[in-house]
Amino acid sequence: MPTRRIFLSGLALDARIGILEHERRATQPLHIDAEFDVDITRDVDDHDIHSVLDYRRLREAIVEECTQAHVNLIETLSEQVARRLLRDFAEVRAVKLRISKPMAFSDCAAVGVEIQINR
Question: Where in the numbering of this chain does the Dihydroneopterin aldolase/epimerase domain appear (predicted)?
């Protein structure tokens, strides 16, 4: 089956993440990049948003999953987000997700993890 790739690049949000004491007291910024391989099940109708997977819904699910509760490890968060996306969006065949913490170290732009899950 043919697929279409949807991507979000540089999504920035504040989340409660981290196992260290200072990370437990305040939110910190996260940057998220995501790619979704989506089944093409019908022709695109330029006048009907329902003919495609609305990327606003994908973004909304990511933001909600990242901000609903404190998570200790970025690895845990990335797995939770990927599972949610596959659970909520049946047309998604594969998810590639990169979550990074830009403030983790002063001597690098960011540190993070990347996960890829295929159905």
Answer: 6-117
Q: Whose structure tokens read 């690895």?
A: 75
CATH number of the domain at 86, please. 3.30.1130.10
Number of folded domains that form the chain:
1
- Report field, pTM of the whole predicted structure over 0.85: yes
Write the pLDDT tens digit of every residue in 31-76.
999 999 998 888 888 998 888 899 999 999 999 999 999 999 999 9
Q: Which residue range forms the structural domain that includes residue 63?
A: 3-118
